[in-house]
Amino acid sequence: MTPVVSERRLTGSILFLLAGLSALGALATNIILPAFPRMGADLAIAPPDLGLLLSSFFVAFAVGQLAVGPLSDRFGRKWLVVGGLGVFAVGSVICAAADTLPLLILGRVVQALGACAASVLSRAIARDLFEGEALGRALALTMIAGAVAPGFSPLLGSILVELSGWRTAFLVVAAFGLVLALHYAGRIGETHTAGRRTPLAPAAVASAYARLAADRRFLLPALAVSLVIGGLYSFFASAPGVLMIELGLTALELGLTFAATVLIVFLAGFLAPRLARRWGPRAVGMVGLSIALASGLAMFLFAAAPTYASFTVAISLYLFGMGLINPLGTAIALTPFGQQAGLASALLGFMQMGCAAIGATVASVLPLPPPVSLAVVLSVGSALALLVFLPVALRKATRD
Asked: Taking the model in full, what pTM does it have?
């Protein structure tokens, strides 16, 4: 019989699952960033075309979540998690075997369709098990643990590229997806009980999405988080161009830089629930967004002639601000919608990946040097996030 979590306590087993599921998409993206020059040379792909490996992933990831959320609210989380991880592994193998750009893009789309299920359901499972302050704490700890994979994956990717080529990186993430599937099936099991499931009908789902998108309790904090997460993925997309091409870092040095940023996310995730307990999640969220905006604006000061030190300081500030608003804003957005946690998480994920696709595309197509383009995306996104979150911060909280 599949074990079911009976206590709302964040155990190591639950944390590993939530962190692994939430980090899977970033892991699959970040691990291949140091391999872009080698992939381009091996398959005769121009550097701008390699950006399609990111944008195609983001678009498929965004759209796929809209189906996963309501399906999980109707049928439960288990088989969608296991099936999604299986699809992700298949897509990873397709990428590993690809010898043309179209086949690589196909594999990335299949990867994204599997990973989107994992990402949606990590938040939905957290909402199944926790609420209120406990939910914010669970999401913060998940973000801390989940930062290890995307933070260290470029370093792992650079080592794999040097030792055995870029194809091995795709096989490694396929293996990780299968490990997560086995862990979930054997140790966690279903968290969305039959009594809490909702009917599934296309018209009803569309109506539910429309109501959710019009509900300020969800829309405003979700949009604020999505804009900042979009900036984070824009940084992922821009990092090889800025650090390797503009500043001359090697693949290994790029990996070490990403690994060092994990400490920033750790610190922010550690502080977020503690600061929220004292001053409230809305106030702390505003501080996080203000820090992110300051980081984007600071980039303009050195964008014409960036140095490694100035760029990494600005990005570290952005990551710290993002680390404060992400778990707290997510908890604010999901808390009122426990019965529709899958659907709400899906719409939140769609918004995040939509902002990621837009941000990464804008950063790559602007006729500006890469550091300037990234500064534009981070500044505009953070300013908009601050603007839409302001009514949330000003609204008197009935329950923080």
From this structure: 0.76
